[in-house]
Amino acid sequence: MTTFREDTIAAIATPIGEGGISVVRLSGSKAIEIADRAFRGRNSLASVATHTAHFGRFVNSHGDLVDDVVSTVFKQPHSYTGEDVVEVSCHGGMYLTKIILAELLDHGARMAEPGEFTKRAFLNGRIDLSQAEAVADLIKARTEAAQITSIQQLEGRLSSEIRILRERLINLVSLIELELDFVEEGLEFVTRSRITDEISVVEDRINSMIDSYGVGKIYREGVKVVLCGRPNVGKSSIFNMLLNSNRAIVTNIPGTTRDTIEESININGVIFTLNDTAGIRESDDTIENEGVLRTKAEIETADILLFIIDLSEGYTKTDSSIIENLAGVRERKLMIIENKCDLINGSYNEMISSGLRTREAIIVSAKTGFGLETLREKLSSLSANGSGLSDKSVIVTNIRHVNSLRDAHMNLEKAKLSLQGGCTGEFVALDLRATCNSLGEIIGEVTSDDILTNIFSKFCIGK
Ligand code: GDP
Question: What's the predicted TM-score (pTM) here?
Fold first, then answer.
């Protein structure tokens, strides 16, 4: 059977565009032979040592010079993919890079699919599946927090924790199954209390990984903050105040042609996506208008809601009823922002003592910038920023991983029930094996083609 790994793949590994250099990458058993057909250096690439770079001329099939290049050779098995790899670095022109790729394809390479280099690294045992996914996350990381969690995963922190847990369970299953072979002799290789203890140790560790997903998701995807409130309370002004405080690192999110405006800021290494919404109105006639409907949709998907009050008007009836409704929104974190404090001078204390102000709120002035730092700090602490990054705990950032962990947990629960219900070892062993399989999915020890296709199709070509 011919496996796809027997052919040699090629792709441009650098972004398409003009730049100092571009890199065209080849991987497979004929990578060196194919590169040698176009490369004219002091020595043929077939004769050079692994992990060395060579200056030479890259020529087309007529022998005409295309570009001066540097070819770097990595011989199997110590390459990224585990196969022979050649990286041709040329001058970074779009046309030039494409010509070099086309020449290599003409010489027998096949165009790589998205993520195929990394897929080969996985299939050749260079990295496991969670590490392969970490490569994609690292490339996409927009903040320090995302970069640190991805590199930790790439280093194998999650994988080694999963392997340790699987090993513990496999040892336990082996003892239980051994016992089944000697059932007539009535031998006990592992006590029921030892099984219970082992299960609870594994369960604790699985639970803490599942719990870490909340933080992990924030590190990977950021926090969605929605600003809402009545018209004219200062939503847009606060939005701009937050953006301006971050001007140097503001990033535009493409594709946001809608009533709500979306921008991202970085606070202490976490991305906050701010959504400025249309005002929530009091009138029955306008309540159903498009903008308000969209505001509602934004509120539904927010991680943090900033509800803005205009202090010069105080808390109106509408404000109070909106707050009541928002406070009931499940799992959303609500922050009340009292804006325009510059307009109320000394009367604020009177407002507090009059009982008008009943909630913890952050007082700001979008006009003077008062309260900006407090607001940023509060956003940062609400997002659980900082927890878990510095210590040795594993942070799960990937929905696929957390789903497998949840399956593992469910199977472990079944094992516990079988044990408590006095079932024979056979049942307990079965549930523990299922737990091992769920854990195995994370690192790719147990996997299907569908899962692999799904994971690698999200990579860019050339990675
Ligand atoms: P939105 O409709 O809620 O987005 O409100 P805007 O941000 O458009 O602000 C409405 C009006 O209030 C504008 O004229 C702003 O200049 C003004 N405004 C916003 N924030 C402040 C503030 O902190 N102090 C003062 N004095 N005026 C403000």
Answer: 0.75
